[in-house]
Amino acid sequence: MKRASFASEEYWGKPLPGFGDPEARVLVIGLAPAAHGGNRTGRIFTGDRSGDWLFGSLYRTGFANQPTSVARDDGLRLSGCYITAAVRCAPPANKPTPQERDNCLPYLVRELGLLESVRVIVALGSFAWDATLRVLAALALAVPRPRPKFGHGAEVEIDRYTLVGCFHPSQQNTFTGKLTEPMIDAVFARAKDLADRGHKRS
């Protein structure tokens, strides 16, 4: 259902593809498209406040050429970073189910397989963290047992990847101060450092 402020707009309303640099060494995995964000604009994390936080941080840490993401044709470009989501369609009440995650999992597996330069994966929230571990297991990589627990700033090395946890930049987290700009910037600065180290070794 459309929001009144966007009543005149034609919503994308389809599964969302990923977005960014195909040669990226850092992959960001979010939860799912927001009903009036990516589901409306047709680009992941575009047109909502979570996206404002995410792209603001990516700009400050050198991954994006501008700090805002409002429309597919707004000139935003990413360098060294690619963004996707665990679930590709806007879920009811912004709460994707395990079934939706599992239905979308093969697309995420295929996407990671195509992004051959990725060495660091930033999971935005515990749902994306869990989906990422499932993707890596589906790629027959040795995921530790018991499975690593999500936490902001948590890190785990799995084969050639380093998985890094970050609180999701949802309004629930940003309005309450659970996630601050210095906190999210620190995660992406760390991701860049890890990716650069991996690039120098390879």
Explain what you see:
The chain has 202 residues and is of the alpha/beta class. The protein has a single domain (15-184), classed as Uracil-DNA Glycosylase, subunit E (3-Layer(aba) Sandwich). It is 35% helix and 13% strand. It is built from six helices and six strands. The chain has helices at residues 38-41, 49-60, 98-114, 126-138, 171-174, 181-201; strands at 19-20, 26-30, 81-85, 120-124, 155-158, 161-166. A six-stranded mixed sheet has the order 1-3-2-4-6-5, sandwiched between helices. Strand 5 and strand 6 (161-166) form a beta hairpin. Helix 2 (49-60) crosses helix 6 and helix 3 (98-114) crosses helix 4. The protein is globular, with a radius of gyration of 16 Å. The N and C termini lie far apart (48 Å).
Supply the CATH class: Alpha Beta
The low-confidence runs, each spanning 5 or more residues with pLDDT under 50, are: none
H/E series? EEHHEHEHEEHH
Compute the number of structural domains: 1
The CATH architecture: 3-Layer(aba) Sandwich
Q: Helix/strand/pairing class, anyone?
A: alpha/beta
Write down the CATH topology. Answer: Uracil-DNA Glycosylase, subunit E
Main beta sheet strand tally, sense and closure: 6 strands, mixed
- In helices, the fraction of residues equals 25-40%
What topology, given as strand order, has the largest sheet?
1-3-2-4-6-5
- The total beta strand count reads 6
Fourth-level CATH superfamily? Uracil-DNA glycosylase-like domain
